[in-house]
Amino acid sequence: MGCCGGTASACAYCGGHAATIDHVQPRSRGGADSWENLVACCQRCNNTKGDRTPQEMSWQLRVIPRPPRGAHWTVRGIDRADPRWEPYLALAA
Predict the structure, then answer these.
(1) What predicted TM-score, i.e. pTM, was given to this entire model?
(2) What is the dihedral sign for C-alpha 76, 35, 30, 13?
(3) How many CA atoms lie within 13 A of 56 on its CB side?
(4) What is the C-alpha to C-alpha distance for residues 20 and 9, in angstroms, rounded to an integer?
(5) pLDDT in tens, 38-86
(6) CA angle 10, 16, 17 (to 5 degrees)
(7) d(CA 64, CA 61)
(8) Which of 5, 36, 52, 71 matches a 20 to 30 Å C-alpha distance to 22?
(9) Domain limits of the chain?
(10) Are 25 and 1 spatial neighbours (Cβ–Cβ below 8 Å)?
(11) Which residues contact 69 (CB under 8 A, 6 or more apart)?
């Protein structure tokens, strides 16, 4: 999965401890703030990659970024879901 999937604590590039979120296609180069463009990343890889793509770094992603799926996906920190999130949560279920 992408940034919050089953390997949320593993860096998408090196497999180390992920403490940041990385835009696979950098925002400055047209990359979106989307599940398909965000991955969990360690600080070292995030700083090293900077404003480049994995292809430019000759790096392989260990995961394919995608929206979360299944019943295990929940919005944390609230007692009930905000109705504005309903369309998105329904897609993830």
Answers:
(1) 0.69
(2) positive
(3) 10
(4) 10
(5) 999 999 999 999 999 999 999 999 999 988 776 666 656 556 667 787 7
(6) 65
(7) 7
(8) 71
(9) 20-67
(10) no
(11) 1, 92, 93
**C-beta separation of 12 from 77 below 8 A:** no
Identify which of 64, 52, 46, 44 has the alpha carbon closest to the alpha carbon of residue 27. 52
Contact yes or no for 31/24 (Cβ under 8 A): yes
Q: What is the DSSP letter of 10?
A: B
Structure tokens at 75: 């919005």
How many angstroms separate the CA atoms of 7 and 40, rounded?
8
Tokens describing residue 72 = 């295990």
The residue among 33, 39, 50, 51 whose CA lies nearest residue 14 is 39
